[in-house]
Queue: 2 jobs
Job 1
Amino acid sequence: MVRRARTVSLPAVRAALYLVRPLRDVAAIRECLRADGAYATYALAQLAPRYFPLVSCWEASGPAGRALVLFSRGGLGDAVYMSGEPAALAAILALHQGPRHNFATCREAHLPVVERYYKVANPRPMLRMVVDRDSFRPPPAPRSGVTVRRMMSADARLVNRLYSSEGQPAFYSAGHIEQGMYHGVFAGRRLVAVAGTHVIAPEEGVAVVGNVFTHPDHRGRGYGTLVTGVTTAALLQSCHTVALTVDPTNEPAVRAYRRLGYREESRLVESPITRRSLTGLAPLLSAALAAWRGRHEGGELVDVPLA
């Protein structure tokens, strides 16, 4: 007796089609980033001539909307900026995932998509604050015995010693100090606080302050406010907008930045990420197929499953 094979009905997988294209025109990328406001400050700085050769950028469009992903290697090194609708973002990341290890800036709504393609080590909700020449309020003058000065390449060892004072080693190079803009607060002859920059781009009118640190034994004396204020004032001479990112639960820091005229502009998530594809071969093969499908559309066509 011959038994008939049983037919099993499987639910159809519903998907939407997205067109993914590279963006190479600086003006077009700038227009997209400026629409994101302060959230895009660091990415916008990457359009400066000395950084842009290290940038690759992709956009996607489809039924749910648009997205943009910008990979950069200027300033802090490998970083990726993500913006737009999650489904459109998934279309880009299915094909273009960048280096194995990266540092991501995204929205909280992007995390499920990001986690599909990367291991997300430590997603931290952060607050982006900005100040401009009109809103900036200079810090109070330093008290007697306290001085502030610009840090130079010869100060790299001094800066690293301060950053390492809580047990975590720091390895800032002389070039990093020289190319950025770092200031230090000295109590007598001792460096007790420092603030620097992640990126400076006068061509785009923006700079990002970072690496603000005060020695544990000298906190609560206004040194962090002082050194951030001095660094901000120097940056505003060549940039109309200065931004920084801070943990919103660090209330003393948030209050200090507000006293300098910084205001809250956006919420974001930052995290180191590691690409799940060990070799990067899978996204390359997917991109090749998508390019063939989209050969008459001026880009790559990719299906994104509907939620």
Note: Confidence is low (pLDDT under 50) at residues 1-10.
Job 2
Amino acid sequence: MNPFVLGVDIGGTHITAATVDMELRALLPQTQVREHINAAGSVEEITTAWAAAMAAAMGKSGHPVQQIGIAMPGPFDYANGIALMQGQGKYDALYGVDVIALVADKLGLDKSAIRTLNDAACFLQGEVFGGAAKGYGRAIGMTLGTGLGTARYKNGLAEDADLWKVPFGESIAEEYLSSRWFVKRYTELTGKQLPHVKAMVDKLPQEPVVGEIFREFGENLAKFLVPFIQEATPEVLVLGGNISKAYALFGPALRHGLAQQNCLIPIKTAILGEEAALLGAASLWVE
């Protein structure tokens, strides 16, 4: 195994890259680069910006870096390096293009030196590699925020579980398990409007209704997780994303709901933050 690998996280508006010490399972913080990306740009503009950020991070490491792991949003053909995003307001110009070959060429590397994985899977991969789920052989992960990300980990590799759109309640899971549900539910129960989940948390303890909303969220999360746990048989559940920071408010209802269905497993909140995807991407090179 190469002792140093570049971990990269590509988002809808940015790219973050840092060299990872594979033995310590940690980022070299002085190597981290974060750049804004114009996701509406041309193929040449986007791939040049990506390659420049990667080259800058590799140049800061002081160590030879010959391998790259990238956390890439879907839809994407991860085996062949071809972008398949369309109509999502980001990277439309890249549709059908072998972007990994283009980036590798700009960096003077062989295409085989770059591996990619779905970004939700990289979050879980990172938390298993060097975070909250270190030492576990089977895990599931959820990112709870503006959207719903789900992943499962076994046999050394995480994969996107892609459960955001499964039927749930009167709609799909993401409509009940993301930040917009909180804002909508608060308005339904109080007639008032708040911009985001943190503003709701700040209303405690003056507004007990906020506690009730978090309890309801925990119950919904348990209902969603029961079939996921039964199917994946994980040893641990990792929760990430901004909503997970309020775990103390919905955790009791979640654990109670899982226990009622004999599905209670250890629950960990993610500890790596944005670093999880970088570590997870780099860990694609663990043989």
Note: The two ends are 7 Å apart (CA to CA).
